[in-house]
């Protein structure tokens, strides 16, 4: 019998360059686990899969830290045989979380631009037609939702330091904004 020790890993597993197939278009939702945003990410994933079903190749949830909440889409190019990754939403850049209808419209614009989303398109058109007031109101609603779902109900426990600092900055900015509006 052979006294040679058997390798513990399969050659395929040991290969650090092994790849897994990716179904395109692929939406990736990266969320902060410290901020307890997994349910929000899962809800968005469920909504996208329900709306776009077979038009989406896959939706993935990626845990992260540091107050991150980003939605990206990887899709094939129509011009050549390459893939492109686009950021659809970044909480830190866009300020808060997207409305479900906004996120669906952003995904639709990439994967099926001619698709009609029915009541979602009508609601978005109505908001855009409110002389910009819809966007301001939407941002305020997003901030209130964010405050209600960042772990504040637990006395701030479990929130990451970056999120706490962002909340302080947002609080100062909102008070300055209120003062400026009063002056105008």
From TrEMBL:
Residues 127-166 are annotated as: Disordered. InterPro entries: Selenoprotein_Rdx-typ, Thioredoxin-like_sf. The keyword Transferase does not apply. Coiled coil: none annotated. Pfam families: Rdx. Keywords: Redox-active center. It comes from the Eukaryota. This is Selenoprotein W family protein. The lineage of its organism: Eukaryota, Fungi, Dikarya, Ascomycota, Pezizomycotina.
């Amino acid at each position: 019998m052979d006294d040679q020790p058997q390798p513990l890993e399969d050659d395929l597993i040991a290969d650090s360059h092994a790849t897994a197939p990716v179904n395109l278009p692929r939406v990736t939702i990266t969320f902060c686990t410290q901020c307890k945003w997994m349910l929000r990410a899962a809800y968005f994933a469920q909504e996208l899969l329900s709306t776009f079903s077979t038009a989406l190749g896959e939706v993935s949830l990626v845990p992260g830290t540091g107050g991150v909440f980003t939605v990206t889409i990887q899709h094939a190019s129509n011009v050549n045989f390459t893939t492109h990754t686009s950021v659809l939403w970044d909480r830190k850049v866009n300020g808060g979380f997207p409305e479900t209808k906004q996120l669906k419209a952003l995904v639709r614009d990439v994967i099926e631009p001619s698709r009609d989303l029915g009541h979602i398109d009508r609601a978005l058109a109505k908001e855009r037609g409110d002389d910009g007031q819809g966007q301001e109101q939407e941002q305020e609603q997003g901030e209130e939702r964010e405050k209600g779902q960042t772990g504040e109900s637990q006395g701030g426990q479990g929130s990451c330091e970056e999120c706490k600092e962002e909340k302080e900055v947002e609080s100062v900015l909102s008070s300055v904004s209120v003062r400026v509006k009063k002056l105008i």
